[in-house]
Request: fold
Amino acid sequence: MSLCRTDALGGETYQCGDCGEVTEVHHSCGDRHCPVCSGRKRFDFADRAQRLILDDVTYYQVVFTLPSKLSELALANREEMAELLSASAWKALKKTIKQQQGYDPAAMMVLHTWNQRMDSHWHVHALVPGGGPSLSDDGWKQAEAPEESGNSDGHYLVDAESLREAFRKFALRHLKRLRSRGELKLGGKFADLNNDDAWEVFCDSLETIDWVSFIQPPPTETSSADQVVRYLTRYLTGGPISDGRLVSTDRDKVTILAREGVRVGGDRTQVPVEMTSLEFTRRWCLHVQPDGLTKVRHFGGWSNRRRTSYLDHCREVLESIRFDPSDWEECEQPADDLAGDCFTGAGSDKHESSLRCPACDGSALRLIAETSKPSWARVLDHLDERCPSWHAEASKSEWIEYLSREYWVDYATWVFETRIESAREPSAPGSASQLFLPGFSAGRSHLLESN
Reply:
């Protein structure tokens, strides 16, 4: 990410037709954890999510959070805990909505693994419709508060306490199943949990604490569900912190803004938090997820298998009834534009850019040169001048140790011969080609044979 939008990754060069100013636009790194990349992914997510929203339906945001002990355990079991968290949250929602409200539920969940201070804090944000096709007839069932609840604002999804208890029950059941199958990595501070007695004590402690599930209704009568979608989109990519919360940085320390307090749902007040650069990097790296881990999941009526038929059925039922529209309060907008990673508009002429000239603010810019994005293997080769110095030094040290240990070759000789030998020398037609390892001449072939 340190090379994102730098000349190391190549890019395009534009010239202004009005003033002649030359502007370079470099390629982005494309990593989903990069705070300045993936604008197109966020735009596409928001577009797909908007198609789930129906008029005259109230939508709720529900947050499910793992206890701190499980958030720490998740660091060594990321895919398993992501599945546990989202599956348990959905089972709790489905069971509680069906029992208390009697309609066919749906949900979209986005995984977050951090809090404002970038600690490990695993939770999911769920977008849940407050109504759906009735399970008892062919009509529409709107979520309603029971008379004994004393609810007077007209917004009610399910009983929060029942939802929390169901979430805890399903999560603990899933956790015990993971361990019984040997799918849970228990090491470090959790190594003692390999002992059955210690495991039982650990599970008992989780059963006695209150788990967090927070239901957020529409704050006002003039809000809309697309605001929740935009809120979820902010954290789909980009890592645990945006540039806007960085107060100051230098070689030794980093100061960020973070919310103060422990109130459920978060406090609005932000205070400066100072930490060492090493600690900042450590906390940031806690949230680098493995390839293939799914951050967005759809359940129930919004699942991939049922989505089309479910939405069509909802529209048919809603045609004959009307509700007072309920919207969401305007949420804070993302620091970057959702389509900020898209340099040119879809379907536009590649040679005509939407970029404006930084010198005269003109729009008559044309592409005059283009450098393709190199492979990461080449950019991160420590012999390449584009490789970041910190990575080059670390990689060089590893090569020195490796060559000395495995092949008794000094690094200087290896570098010299790497620059003059080809990786593969073509052989005569009809014969097998011979592979040459850079750094090893024919005079040292016996070293390879001996190894």
